[in-house]
Amino acid sequence: MPLTATDTRGTPPVDLPRRPGTVLFMVCAAIFMLMLDATVVTAALADIRTQFDASIDGLQWVIDAYSIPLAGLLLTFATLGDRFGRKRMFLAGMAVFTGASLALTLADGIVQLDILRAVQSVGAAMLFATALPLLSAAFPEPAARAKAIGVYGAVMAGATVLGPVIGGALVTRFGWRSIFTVNLPIGVALLVLAALKMPEAARASGRRADPLGSLLLTGGLMAGVFAVTRSSVLGWTSPAVLGLLAAAVVLVSGFLAWQIRGAEHPLLDVAMARRPGFTGTAIVSVAHMATLMAATTYLSLFLIGTLDCTPLQMGLRVIPLSVGAMIAAPLTAVLAKKVPISVSLTVTMALVAAGMFLLGGFAPGDGWTHFLPGELVGGVGLGAITAATQAASLTFAAPENAGMASATFGTLRQVGMAVGIAGLGSMFGHVARQQAASGLAAVPGADSVPQDLRDAFVHQVGAGSGHQVLEAVPPRLQGSVPALTRVADHASVDALNSVATLGSVVAAVSVVLAVIAFTVDRGRATRAAARTRLTGV
Question: Measured in whole angstroms, how far is the alpha carbon of residue 34 from the centre of its chain?
Fold first, then answer.
């Protein structure tokens, strides 16, 4: 049967074929490509570091330059999609994303690479903002929608953790630029298919963009991430870091105040944010990305730099994450109707915390199989959380505002990824540099090595190069290579273990906070129901 969509701006209704299967395919293909690009670069970081002599900060921004604009613009594009048409937004996003991918294949410096990743994320934000609303319109029946969301969640989780595998194969065979080149045929094909086959859904009336809100949110996120990334070098008490932190607090506070009291058409529906379960869901949305997902970046660097894996071998060694995620996501989407969100999200976040803990404790001499239990347990948690939060997001708003609801949680996930990459990267770089410097000082004859060479050694170990740094050891120091190898390996091991420790603590705390939030919300709902029974109102 045809789907009737009414253009609320006054134009006559238009009969549109629903084509739910086609819509599901296009949305899932687009999301697979977007999520792949969020993580595929982990396989290329070692080569990018070598070619551009990039620091750990520069490498972090290859990922955060994608996450931060995505987080800051999701809500804006969701509003515009609800207002002007999700099909139009989908097409525009695919065009921007594909064009930026082409430009990335030609980048000739780390700064240019980071800037183009930010442009790419603008297209990604348009696509993410329309994905779930398009599925919601294509599958209006709850049972069919739950299955579609399960497929969507499985694709999203699978792409997230398959990124290093696919990226590893591409980098090993064709070089790091191929991870962006591969987007071109896929993007063009989806652009043509969507233009011809994707139906338009009903548009929301009276909705406008909120440029000031977008500016405040994006600026606050950028300032906060800059502060965290620079803290490992400058220290938390440095004027620059304190100034950036203060700016982040002011801008984010300004965003919240503007959404509550000033914006005529706010990006964030405050009433939605006050609904039971929202706070706990938000905590989990941020925490799982900030911990296990962000930690996979540094696990990938460790596998390549310290355990001597090729990019492809590295990708294969993190595939247990994919297996767990792809099994858990569709099952969770089906069970989401039977199990309360408060239970499913806290249990699955606890699995992420357990997986994060199991990744730690690596000792010199251990092999990559040490990470298997953590990857499997954490992967199940990641897949389940992805599906559960997707299903939950559609319960917090009316269908015409589905874009805002799904984009709110998409924003929170990207905030978690950006902050997690910065925070865990700051810890990794600080510990690696500190251990490399102290270990180097204990190597016999190190005092006779020029300071610039010692600084370069410490810098490269801090950037995650592991003992690959020894490839540049001058001939006169070749006799010290075994000792320097031990120094680099121990520094990298300590850095990775510190990331696992910090991530597991943050994940555990988030479980506690989510339980408290859900308990408070459940208590409020119970009291409200009791008042209704007593008063009849």
Answer: 10
Structure tokens at 450: 């020029």
Token pair in block for residue 250: 């002011």
Instruction: Look up tokens 């976040």; give the residue.
Output: 349
- Longest Cα–Cα distance of the chain, Å, equals 88
**Given this model, what pLDDT does residue 3 score?**
40
Q: What is the pLDDT of residues 277-321, one digit of tens each?
A: 788 888 998 999 899 988 988 898 888 888 888 888 888 888 888
Q: Which two tokens stand for residue 235?
A: 């220290």
C-alpha 200, offset from chain centre: 28
Closest CA to 1 of 118, 136, 141: 141
Task: Return the DSSP state at 447.
Answer: G
CA-to-CA distance for 34 and 510, rounded, in angstroms? 27
Sequence-distant (6+) residues with CB within 8 A of 398 are none
Indicate the residue type of 160. Answer: T
User: Which tokens hold the place of 112?
Assistant: 């240019």
In order, the DSSP letters of 351-375 are HHHHHHHHH----TT--GGGGHHHH
Task: Confirm if 346 and 514 have CB atoms less than 8 A apart.
Answer: yes
Rounded to the nearest 5 percent, the helix, strand and coil shares of the chain are: 80, 0, 15
Please state, in angstroms and rounded to a whole number, the distance separating the CA atoms of residues 440 and 14: 72
Q: Per the structure block, which two tokens stand in for 114?
A: 């980071």
The candidate with the shortest Cα–Cα distance to 102, out of 189, 186, 185, 181, is 181
Asked if 431 contacts 495 with a C-beta cutoff of 8 angstroms, the reply is: yes
CA separation for the pair 457, 517 (Å, rounded): 46
- pLDDT digit string, tens, across residues 465-486: 777 666 656 666 666 778 888 8
